[in-house]
Amino acid sequence: MMKPTPSLLLAAMAxxxxxxxxxxxxxxxxxxxxxxxxxxxxxxxxxxxxxxxxSVAQMTAMGRAMFFEPSLSVSGKLSCASCHSxxxxxxxxxxxxxxxxxxxxxxxxxxxxxxxxxxxxxPAFTEHYHDDDGDDSVDAGPTGGxxxxxxxxxxxxxxxxxxxxxxxxxxxxxxxxxxxxxxxPLAAQFRQxxxxxxxxxxxxxLRWALMSLEVFQESPADFYPYTSKYDAVLRxxxxxxxQEARGLALFNDENKGNCASCHISQITQGGAFPQFTDYGxxxxxxxxxxxxxxxxxxxxxxxxxxxxxRTDLTQHKEYCGSxxxxxxxxxxxxxxxxxxxxxxxxxxxxxxxVQRETAPQKWYPKDKHxxxxxxxDLPPGLEANVNVExxxxxxxxQAPALNEREMADVIVFLRTLTDGYQAPAPVQRxxxxxxxxxxx
Length: 440
Known about the structure:
This protein is mainly α and about 450 residues long.
């Protein structure tokens, strides 16, 4: 170790003596405040970090403009609305199992585009969820979050994913998103909303761009209008037809459809209208969709909660194959169903539900020995993850939980969940009621 030289020792002693002789200098140094860091609250997701905070109306308008703007994609042709059409309850406008994106709009995704309606109350993801009913003894298991696997915890977090996905809007990173916004047709509106210098702070520009999209997607008129016939019935402004009423009864019956066990149909204890989802994640053994390019690889499996898109729960094999329970509001507008778009009609969906166990050969392929390979979109050994509650509680050869007429009744009821219902005029309503009395 190097020893201090006499000159260094003398210098140190001199500094001490000078400090001792100038107590005022000491006090001045002590009084000078240390450089302060920003308040902790400013790091919060919803903290007001701007000098002038815009109104909700301004943010909604900004988010709406971004939602429909294709220049934010690498192709210049794909917007959020391309996959989430307002004319289809902010779901896919076509019958593609998965939507196409990327630089040439030729890259297929791996999951069907969900509707963005009625997710405003989705809780943050948790592995152990307890309903707000005063009984914490019941653990509903993995629940909440956004996306099919619940990995996004908020609307703004979810909004970033398609902007960066190479199979969707395809931006290489967040900086590329901000660059497109700064150079595009929305730049002036963005500056007017968030300040003339907003693009000089790229992190803040991205933050408020994503917040704009989230605030827009919280707009009641667009994303949770509650204007279906069923909502009118709950308001006592309309009445279900006999067939619709039968469908609702079958939907709720625990020994028949048992749909309401996950797709809650009753007004909550707090008076909120039902969302027709419990926000849970469940494995119902949906068949593999051979039409998906990703599934051309026999070793590829989309396992939802435990990967591959979600990476924090890969060790929880009991979660593999579980996906979000979507809201059934506006389900009749969809042309593809389930996370992999494997079915193309509500009739198919209902038949799968009631025949999955009673006639599995109708839904799954056979192996080389001629044996039906049930749950073929799961790797071997994970069969125990599949839900077996009603209507999946039957055995091969048994009668399904619903017959053809009952399935038709349920589908007619599901159509009452489509937004945009208008009550018929009094004369028309009377004619309808007379017709229902004849045909029931």
